[in-house]
Amino acid sequence: MQKIIRFYLRRFRVVRIKRKTKKRVSKKYLEHKESARILATQRLEYFNQHYNLKFGKISIRNQKSRWGSCSSKGNLNFNYKIALLPSHLSDYVIVHELCHIGQFNHSQNFWDLVGETLPDYKKLVTELKMWSIKARVNPLIG
Asked: What domains can you pick out in the chain, each with its CATH number?
């Protein structure tokens, strides 16, 4: 490990320089990333015909604990594993994040917005909780 010496008034300190390590990219992420992007883009276009909201970039990520997220700038991020979900659950994740552009919270107004296109969203929330992002297998099969 490389060291550097920093000099201050009347004293000095030896500091270690940390090397940047390359992140390991999983094989499954690379396999499913593009199909997740196509799915998200197509379904956003479909659902946005109803909502008519303006969103920014669409990113597909390998997040450890989230199915999706929405930034304050209107960028939408989705986990690549939405491509592995049943279509009704991936639609829920996509609608959920799209509705955050209209309501950036989980108030009743937000849920009313989600309910406009997915009236059974409460059932979908319960079903999605059975699917762990960290799981390697389908929870319904075992």
From this structure: 21-130 (3.30.2010.10)
